[in-house]
Design brief:
185 residues, mainly beta, 5-stranded mixed β-sheet, 4-stranded antiparallel β-sheet
């Protein structure tokens, strides 16, 4: 039966850290092919489309990623809800324009964790902006920037990028993307 367990798990070492270091957006290109044979038991992204361009957004602080398993025994269905909440400091005309484009499209988003793993949100269906604020804050210490929520719904959990590390977010993939960095504005 395809849903039988195949391994156990020991208590891991306490050497992980939480948080997101960087997110990389790409315009929706269709499935990256991480899923093979109808399951993602070994789902790793090992090849990216040639000519792929990703746009890097460095983060610090209150950004987070949560993936929720949704199962209905009555309907016999399971899917995974992906939620990425980004807090981007400092308002600018350029960033407001990019936020508008993100909301109009359905980007695919690579998340590089502080632990060095890179995962892909919206591997098959893309991710949608489902909430967001552009805010000036009220007090001097308040956020002057953007808070944006992206959600995805996928048949399988977010796949990992093969061989990713903190120093090399796209690790051992064939056809690594061109990374476009922004300015400090």
């Amino acid at each position: 039966m395809a849903c039988n367990l195949t391994i156990g798990r020991n208590e891991p070492c306490k050497d992980s850290v939480g948080g997101i270091a960087t997110v990389y957006f790409c315009n929706y290109t269709g499935s990256f092919g991480a899923i093979s044979s109808g399951s993602n038991s070994d789902a790793l992204i090992e090849t990216l489309p040639s000519g792929l361009t990703v746009y890097a957004y460095d983060l610090k602080g209150n950004s987070s990623y949560t993936e929720t398993v949704n199962t209905s025994r009555d309907n016999g269905t399971t899917f995974f809800s992906q939620e990425l909440v980004l807090n981007l400091k400092k308002l600018s005309n350029e960033m407001t324009t990019q936020l508008k484009l993100m909301a109009y499209g359905r980007p695919q988003i690579f998340i590089q964790t502080m632990a060095g793993d890179t995962l892909l949100v919206g591997e098959r269906e893309g991710a949608d902006v489902t909430a967001g604020t552009i805010q000036t804050g009220a007090a001097l210490g308040d956020l002057y920037g953007y808070s944006v929520t992206f959600t995805g719904q996928e048949q399988f959990p977010a796949p990992f990028v093969s061989g990713s590390t903190y120093a090399s977010p796209f690790g051992k993939v064939a056809n690594p993307p061109t990374i476009v960095y922004g300015t400090n504005d």
